[in-house]
Amino acid sequence: MIGKAANRPVYSLLATDGDPLTRIRVYASGGVEYAWYRRPEDLIDEAVRHKEAGYTAFKFRIGTEWKNSGITVKKYAFVPSQDA
Asked: Residues 79, 46: contact at Cβ < 8 Å?
């Protein structure tokens, strides 16, 4: 409603610290169409396909099947030492 009252697009009202962007960058999402932990190179292959499709950013969901991968938080998480 404020945009209509000011006769301005909303994106110009939200850009308070500079000129508003008229385009936004989108990313490709993947990593769920295969068991990546059996062949990690599948992630690279998928990234190449996304790049060929014109994407410049990617998000991979590589944690969808933890129970099948043998990956555990205890095994792979970094826990800082309590000694200091």
From this structure: no
67-81 pLDDT, tens digit per residue, is 656 656 565 555 555
Asked if residues 11 and 38 have their Cβ atoms less than 8 Å apart, the reply is no
- In sequence order, the β-bridge partners of residue 28 are 58
Counting every residue written for the chain, the total comes to 84
List the alpha helices (DSSP H) in 1-84: 2-6, 10-14, 41-52, 66-69, 73-76
Rounded to the nearest angstrom, the gap between the alpha carbon of residue 22 and the centroid of all alpha carbons in its chain is: 21
Q: How many CB atoms lie within 10 A of CB 32?
A: 13
Angle at CA of residue 78, ends 68 and 65, nearest 5°? 15
Quote the DSSP letter at residue 23: -
Whether the Cβ atoms of residue 37 and residue 71 lie closer than 8 Å to each other? yes
| pLDDT at 29 exceeding the cut of 80 | yes
